[in-house]
Amino acid sequence: xxxxxxxRLFMGDYGIITYNSIGLVMGVKRLPIGISDFxxxxxxxxxxxxxxxxIGDVYxxxxxxxxxxxxxxxxxxxxxxxxxxxxxxxxxxxxxxxxLDVSQDAEAMEALNTYPTIFISFKDIKDxxxxxxxxxxxxxxxxxxxxxxxxxxxxxxNDMERNVSGDYL
Length: 169
Known about the structure:
This protein is mainly α. Helix content is 37%, strand content 9%.
């Protein structure tokens, strides 16, 4: 059964090509294998399921903490990256969300690029030994601290908190 509007569909290793009845390529999109950065996915015009409606749900959620659990390879990091690009007030990312579901949510769009945001992913910390994994975690936190130093410093209330955090970094 042909894909709606196309006579043939070819699925290669990393992309999908569609042809009309005279054999012209109608569209080529890459499958986002291994891509966990929302901006990269959008700018490369890769296939993806539009999950941006969840941004409005997260924005309106009254809880202080939201736990997003999914099995491996279900897009947890990609969704966190999407949330970071949406809320981070150091970025101007409205073009990434044009035409996506969230762009129809006026309340959520008012929150675009309005919050200080720190994006942390532990997906690359993989080790069976605790001491090695702990070392990787400390390295990650040190890099994040250097990158977000101004934001982190503004959170500390006093010198004691600053000293305690220094013990961990």
